[in-house]
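Quick log. Single chain, no ligands specified.
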Amino acid sequence: MRLLMKVLKNLFGNNTKINANDIAIRNIEDKAVTLDNFLNNATIYESGSNSNGSWIKYTNGILIQWGKQQFSVNFVDFWGYKGSNIMRIQYPIKFIENTSCCVTLAASTECWLLTDYEEGTTVQSQQFRAIRPNGLGDGNATIILNYQAIGRWK
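-> predicted structure:
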């Protein structure tokens, strides 16, 4: 009850200070921990980069990876559209479980719609295919993708 009163006083402007050990939150394992405990366990453990992109590992097990990768693709008939061959984004390091990523188009010569192949999700990579209207025809193109993936390393 005392903690609740502290929180309410702070919210309503009585300038009562609340310490990080007074606030409970849920961690990634859905367990209640104090905010200071969570933050102490969420410091950067390791970071780095290689030809596939960059990463940050946090001491609480979170792994964030990002990068930009370029693909040369060939468009052919695909379900009533023109579809590219499969593109596979390679993560810089492995996750401990299959992890999907968010992808945005960095550069191309035309408009594209990217689709995620669910069966292509792994601990090390993610598959995509570019789609375009039939009117743009077959042929080759260069596609540059930005990606970000968040998962666990431990």
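Residues 2-11 form the longest helix (10 residues).
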